[in-house]
């Protein structure tokens, strides 16, 4: 079937949120979907093997010989493009921070049942591709086209609905100059797991919009009601929709946990004295304007470096003079839209956009 | 401190094995330590971003300018080598299957508390480096040297012991011609997370022996008693040692789960008719000689392709004519040492080497 059975009232998550222990299903997802170890915040760019990955179904094997991108539907001229055709078009390389909309989900109480991210579902890579808007202009969108549907080669079942992974953008959203079709990541061909040979890249949006293994773009004259668009990825307070669709990345900062870890608990041990705390901050709603570090509940401003790019994180740092004992470190960012990370959870039914300020417990010796 | 307090009776795992639910600590580890999605068994070589990763502490940042490999201790001539020095030596490129000793741990009952691998802690890469034995000959091992200690740049606390990650090999083990110091993976410089700039590679052994971020090799005249050598990585039936040290990889086969998955449960749905089942099999104790596929309890031989290399997995396949209904698929391999994967768990205290035959539940429609 190609449209989800929303009328069945299926929740986007497979069950009620729970106060209960982690399930085997969540463990399987945690094993499959890689997070970025937070020490990788050290670098401007995240290597492909450390960048977060959220893959709904299986990684598909796409043969370059037969693969074509089809651009059709409500357009004057359908296009069918090989990867070479796309590479022959004007190329742009741009650092972009991508984050999974579910980042921080496992920290919510009660816990929505889905991929149980802790905090590492983020990464910044330098993506190379060709802007989408000129392609759409070339195809000639029909005057009654309202959305573009982007479909990947990956397919499976979610919430009882069998579909390929597909998401839509309105014409206006799709025409933004930063929206690209990308075929390289950090100067290398797109890795298999990041969507080889081609993925959509929607800078500033949570990662669900950047459809991997892209096979078709279809202009449609009515709103797309696929599962990943109409059911999943909504801010909801309970199982019943519609709720607000998830779009741009909420402001967030993260810290490289200082000192050394305990293998099992990951608790940090730090030597007394000056400690350089540092991390990254980003937002899809505006520029990051301020980062504050909380030491045992007292907030202090951090130094900010320039952003790595218009749609990429910026580095922050602050020297902390660590005294012996147990301490709680936090960080929070504010963006130019005035949004500030909350220090308490702001719960929602699908566990989306939980940008509550990070909390790092350390023992200073 | 540089030697672990074994006399304190610390268990290698942080607590008693449990029948209980997954802990937040295990979830944190599952998020940090990447497993290989099983569909990556499709390819001879695993891309760096899909290869499994087990990192005990934090990924260290090593500067190539100051980094040197120090080979010293009980040798006639200590050596200090830059990466260029190592690259100038004879180079070997070899596909090697690496697997974490804890692969399959989370499937044990009761469950040892550590990294809760399901089944994907494996990968095969083409590694490039220089054999270790000629370097040892050049340095001239003292006649009373018994072991070589390999120490990484990563450091932390495990079981109450603070140490850099370090493992030893006997002289005889270290002199095997396939033991290498590697600086490239799949034709690229060693990725940060795989040990940049240099890691030890001990083909045929579980991954704990292949020390990442290698900084020193020290010939010693008494057995090394570091935590990762003397406490962790032992086959034990309870908290008290010594038990048998973990060395070579036990025979295992894995299957690419057929059909399409459900996002949350990962349960497979398959269309009725002929289905090509396929996967990989490997062993560190000899050649894989047989793979059998179990369909609802009936075992049948699979076709075997030649191994990818002397220390790498081989492909297997079998056509299954799938009839409607629910089915349980399994696979098991036997190696030239006569070892056969068990169909029931063989439990041990640290959850090591659990090579129980994989079980895949499918619904055929």
TrEMBL record, chains A, B:
Residues 1-22 are annotated as: Disordered. Residues 56-227 form the Oxidoreductase molybdopterin-binding domain. SUPFAM superfamilies: E set domains, Oxidoreductase molybdopterin-binding domain. One of its GO terms (molecular function) is molybdopterin cofactor binding. Residues 272-364 form the Moybdenum cofactor oxidoreductase dimerisation domain. Pfam families: Mo-co_dimer, Oxidored_molyb. GO terms for biological process: sulfur compound metabolic process. InterPro entries: Ig_E-set, MoCF_OxRdtse_dimer, Mopterin_OxRdtase_euk, OxRdtase_Mopterin-bd_dom, OxRdtase_Mopterin-bd_sf. Its cofactor is Mo-molybdopterin. It comes from the Bacteria. Keywords: Metal-binding, Molybdenum, Oxidoreductase. PANTHER family: SULFITE OXIDASE, MITOCHONDRIAL, SULFITE REDUCTASE. This is Sulfite oxidase. It comes from Paenarthrobacter ureafaciens. The lineage of its organism: Bacteria, Bacillati, Actinomycetota, Actinomycetes, Micrococcales.
């Amino acid at each position: 079937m190609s449209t989800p059975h929303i009328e069945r009232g299926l929740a986007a998550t497979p069950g009620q949120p729970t106060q209960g222990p982690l399930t085997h299903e969540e463990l399987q997802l945690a094993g499959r979907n890689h997070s970025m170890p937070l020490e990788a915040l050290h670098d401007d760019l995240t290597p492909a093997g450390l960048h977060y990955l959220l893959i709904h179904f299986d990684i598909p094997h796409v043969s370059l010989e037969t693969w074509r991108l089809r651009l059709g539907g409500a357009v004057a001229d359908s296009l069918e493009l090989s990867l070479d055709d796309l590479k022959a078009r004007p190329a742009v390389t741009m650092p972009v921070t991508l984050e999974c909309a579910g980042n921080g989900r496992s920290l919510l109480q009660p816990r929505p049942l889905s991929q149980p991210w802790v905090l590492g579902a983020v990464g910044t890579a330098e993506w190379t591709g060709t802007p989408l808007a000129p392609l759409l202009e070339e195809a000639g969108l029909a005057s009654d086209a309202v959305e573009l549907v982007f479909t990947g080669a990956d397919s499976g079942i979610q919430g009882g609905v069998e579909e390929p992974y597909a998401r839509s953008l309105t014409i206006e959203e799709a025409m933004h100059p930063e929206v690209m079709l990308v075929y390289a990541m950090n100067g290398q061909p797109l890795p298999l797991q990041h969507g080889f040979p081609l993925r959509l890249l929607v800078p500033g949006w949570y990662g669900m919009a950047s459809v991997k293994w892209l096979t078709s773009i279809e202009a449609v004259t009515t709103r797309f009601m696929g599962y990943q668009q109409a059911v999943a990825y909504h801010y909801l307070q309970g199982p019943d929709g519609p709720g607000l669709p998830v779009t741009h990345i909420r402001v967030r900062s993260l810290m490289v946990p200082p000192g050394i870890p305990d293998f099992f608990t990951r608790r940090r041990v730090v030597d007394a004295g000056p400690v350089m705390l540092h991390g990254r901050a980003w937002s899809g709603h505006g520029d990051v304007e301020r980062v504050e570090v909380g030491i045992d509940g007292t907030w202090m401003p951090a130094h900010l470096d320039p952003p790595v790019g218009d749609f990429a994180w910026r580095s922050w740092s602050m020297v902390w003079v660590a005294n012996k004992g147990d301490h709680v470190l936090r960080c929070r960012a504010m963006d130019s839209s005035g949004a500030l990370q909350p220090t308490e959870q702001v719960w929602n039914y699908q566990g989306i956009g939980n940008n509550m300020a990070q909390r790092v417990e350390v023992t200073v010796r």
